[in-house]
Amino acid sequence: MGGQRAFDEVEEMALAGALLEVASEEELDRFLGDLIKRAGRAVGGVIRSPLGQTLTGILKNAAGQALPVIGGAIGSAVGGPSGEALGRQFATNAGQFFGVELEGLSPEDQQYEIARRFVRFAGAAAANAAQSEPSAAPPVVAEVAAADAAREHAPGFLAPHPAEPAVAGGRAPSGRWVRRGRTIVIVNCSAPGPSQTS
Q1: Is residue 193 one of the residues assigned to a domain?
Q2: What DSSP string describes 133-151?
């Protein structure tokens, strides 16, 4: 997996433009479903419904993290000092998510570049999923496919999240794994933090 490019530059640009026109959660669901199907076909694979639904959820979460413009956060606030500050914050956050520098671009160009990067990431995740083992569990396949795509296209998606507090007496490490040939890939692993003794 990884390194998959599901769309050529023209398709990527068209999809980025379509993404920027998304105005509701239903439209985002439809956009992601279409993108996943197109990416699967582009690599000669098919993404069945349970896997497609799981991958859509993961990509929707990523879109919420990286594309606040989808919710209108940028579009309605551009202009004036508060719009400028919000635009700078958007550029910083989205740039970190995708590992790219956006400073110096106009707000519109920033939005478009982030939409292109998201389409590239989502397309790679879908292409990875389409080439997975059909008998593998859809949640594991979707998570591994998205993580593999994120390594190259959206490193901020893999950024560590604050650890959850351990329950009394600690807790055992948790997570899932999937075998890829002779390699085992660990997904969503969390280990207990250091014990607190007083």
Answers
A1: no
A2: -TTS-HHHHHHHHHHHHHH
Per-residue pLDDT of the chain (198 residues; tens, 9 = 90+): 555 578 999 999 999 999 989 888 888 999 999 999 999 888 888 788 899 999 999 999 888 777 765 544 333 333 445 544 555 555 567 777 888 888 888 888 888 999 999 999 999 999 999 998 888 899 999 999 999 999 999 888 886 644 444 444 445 555 666 666 666 666 666 555 444 444
In a domain, 34, yes or no: yes
- For the entire predicted model, the pTM comes to 0.70
- Angular region, 78: left φ>0, alpha ψ -120 to 50, beta rest: beta
Q: What total of structural domains would you count in the chain?
A: 1
